[in-house]
Design a protein that fits this description.
The chain has a six-stranded mixed beta sheet. The protein has two domains: 139 residues, GMP Synthetase, Chain A, domain 3, CATH 3.30.300; 107 residues. The protein contains ten helices and six strands, in the order H-E-H-E-H-E-H-E-E-H-E-H-H-H-H-H. With 261 residues, it is of the alpha+beta class. The relative contact order is 0.12.
């Protein structure tokens, strides 16, 4: 069951989209933790994906910008936690490198064109496989091509290379509070579980998997990560440990088999 305020925000979003897009609105789908089953009202964002018949026009883009500014001003605790993109039917079929789409990032309230990285392969897999994602429109299988394990694996490995580069820049101010460190730990555990099991599960499930399958000291990180999720304290020592975990994960991932035995 959706959190009450998250559900209210999504209803307001869909009503606004139907008003702005009319019959050109094809569907609205949940993604992320709302589908995977580990939505946390204290830390999670509200992830969705909107499909339009053809690419959003300039006039529609202007109306949607205004819609999202209004939604961001609602007296709803998730008002600025909405993450959303608008794709045409054609673009929804499969991820293509270099394509930019109207996208709303958490905390901004501002809809802008952003290039979609390979993490959107993972988003499509979640919409198709993780649970009930449809809020409005046809079944997602009618709009999205199946995501193969080869595609899923490639996306995870490419994202891990980005994380590896981030871990090698410890001076980056993005290495901040313990809550961010917990997010990184969850993400690394989820990447390893995906490559080992061929299933992209929830972050909560990935932590449970890690507690059984990872060696120390990484297992201990997976045990302690939940207690850090809402912790705003800066912890340089923890950040150094998590950076080491990222580097270990990237190396370990390359050694995992590309097919199940």
């Amino acid at each position: 069951m959706l959190d009450t305020e998250a559900a209210e925000l999504l209803r307001a979003l869909l009503a606004g989209q139907r008003e702005m897009l009319g019959e050109r609105l094809v569907g609205l789908y949940l993604r992320g933790s709302l589908v995977a089953g580990d939505f946390d009202p204290l830390t999670s964002d509200v992830d969705a994906l909107c499909i339009v018949d053809t690419a959003v026009t300039d006039a529609e883009f202007g109306r949607l910008v205004a819609l999202h500014q209004r939604l961001a001003d609602l007296p709803n605790r998730f008002a600025t936690d909405l993450e959303l993109a608008y794709l045409s039917r054609e673009a929804a079929r499969r991820w293509r490198p270099g394509e930019a789409h109207p996208t709303l990032s958490r905390g901004s309230g501002s809809l802008t064109y952003q290039v979609h990285g390979e993490n959107w392969v993972l988003e499509r897999w979640t919409i198709l496989n993780a649970g009930e994602s449809r809020l409005y429109g046809p079944a997602p299988q009618e709009l999205f091509d199946p995501v193969t394990f080869a595609q899923l694996r490639a996306a995870v490995l490419h994202r891990l290379r980005d994380w590896q580069a981030f871990a090698l820049t410890p001076q980056d101010p993005a290495w901040g509070h313990r809550g961010h460190a917990a997010y990184v730990i969850e993400t690394m555990c989820r990447a390893l579980q995906t490559l080992a099991t061929w299933q992209l599960g929830s972050k909560r499930a990935a932590l449970r998997w890690a507690q059984v399958n990872l060696p120390e000291p990484w297992r201990d990180l997976s045990v302690r990560a939940p207690q850090w999720k809402s912790d705003a304290a800066h912890d340089p020592a923890l950040n150094r440990t998590v950076q080491a975990f990222v580097l270990w994960t990237a190396k370990r991932a390359e050694s995992l088999p590309a097919s199940l035995p």
